[in-house]
Amino acid sequence: MKHTVSRTLPRVLRRRDARLCLAAVLVSGFGTSALWLVAGVWVKDLTGSDGLAALCLLALWAPTAAGPVLGALADTVRRGPLLIGLHLLPAALLPVLTAVDSPGRVWLVFAVLFVYGAVGVVQDAAESALVAGAVPASLLGEFNGLRMTVSEGLKLVAPPAGAVLYGAYGADAVVLLDAASFVLAAGLYACLRVPERSPARGERERVRIAEGARHLWRHPRLRPLVLAGGATMLCAGVNGAALYAVIDALGHAPAYAGVLYAVQGAGSVVAGLLAGPALRRLGAHRLAGYGIAVTAVAAGLRAVPSDAAALLCSAAIGAGLPCVLIAAFTAVQRETPDALLGRTAATAHTLVLAPNAVGLAVGAALVEVVDVAVLLAALGVVWAASAALMRQSAASPSRTADRSSSDANPA
Known about the structure:
411 residues; mainly alpha; 18 helices; 79% helix; globular
């Protein structure tokens, strides 16, 4: 597998547009990851309220529920210019936050973060559609794996960097850094040379928001992948809510969560590098099934009160979850007509990622009334059942269609 990675990654990175897209993700993602942490700390410092600090994350996530509606915008205009505008908009909006200097103005933080989150939903849809035209179908898995590696790697670096910058120079410095990162990303997208056809006026008028959802539901290969992805992220939310109970069982302070998050992020970075070649060898359904199975075993073993087990399971969960996401989102890019891709990608993101917030809420309630070992064991069983369903789906007659000739292992 290592030889396959070393052979396929240069094929992706040799493509100019792929490099530019990854660079834009790196630049804007750094600013976003830094602000994500600092916003909550900033609100906490201004108000002293844990609840208001938590609302920062909710404000960012809430627009995900409107993904099918927001994603339709990516099918009505050319995606390249849209991405440029979508990066310049938050760059112009973020400096408003420099006026926040008292608890009475904290509402500005929530308003800006809500718009920030809505723009991000459209950005993801437009980028998914644009990348599908910039990168050959045979390399989409590798590209999405690299994108996952970049995103997860940033989560290990950017939040601590943002915290240091906040401590030294205050929130304004982090806000302006994020705004500058969006300007630079817009410049990188402006350099793309992806041929695009402008949708005709009649096509824009006929855009139907529900068509993306109908496409996913009717497609025999996409439906099980998206449903499995949503179920996986629902369980991931419950698993995340149980984290501090696991830490208590280990006898550590809550700050130990930082260690476990870092190990999980490292697992995701490795998975991102390996997922593309694995997708070519296994196909989307089998890769997703193996990823869920690894996560199921790791979730169950987290109940063992051992530091070694906790670290190993965190790494395994970090490696398993990206396999499901990369398999599902790459399949959507490959199996969806260009005219539908913005809506379909946004709908898939909503169906897969939004259940994570539901899982967090359910897990927060369950962890108060159910022993954490029992909860994690039950979670492992549910995940294992989902993996079995994916394996059955991979063994169906449609499996051969899931692995096109371009995805076959080049023996």
